[in-house]
Amino acid sequence: MQRMSDQPARWTQATVYPDMWADPDDDPRNSEGNSPDGELATLQDFLSGYRLTLRMKCEGLDPEQLARRSVPPSTMSLLGLLRHIAEVERDWRNWISDGDPLPTLYDKDDGDFNGAVADQAVVDAAYADLEREQAATDAALAAHPDLGERLGKDGTAVRELLVHRIEEYARHCGHADLLRECIDGRVGQ
């Protein structure tokens, strides 16, 4: 267990604004021009931004750092968050399906975090799982561009699903901020 004096010093790569992750000109989340037109494009833009933020918070870390747990008794780690989001993306497809649910990616009692161990193969699998599940959920929803359309056994609106996905990523990006700062002191939006 780390003592307070063992904590890394806070730092940022930004030189313009000390509370930013990167300088605005270097931040891949910044786009040129106006924001997207229309509700669907706006929701997709926010989702893309939060997805990229989560990946950025994990960049440059080795397997041990990615698997490092937060404050006990929590089992949360950045690697665990990647695995959790992959599992959640898969589960969202269950919301819009009338068929049998897809099997879970990880042990259902795992909570996605206990299996997040400091092993490069586990890290590589987590990234591959996340990319595959995001693409599959995106493809499933692309077939339903009407945000008011109700899908699945519970009649969930496409809009509700997109907003919930944004909320899930945004919440976990907040966790990722704190986890990353604990690992190497890096701070920023």
TrEMBL record:
Entries under SUPFAM superfamilies matching the protein: DinB/YfiT-like putative metalloenzymes
Sequence segments annotated as region (Disordered): 1-40
UniProt protein name: DinB family protein
Organism: Streptomyces monticola
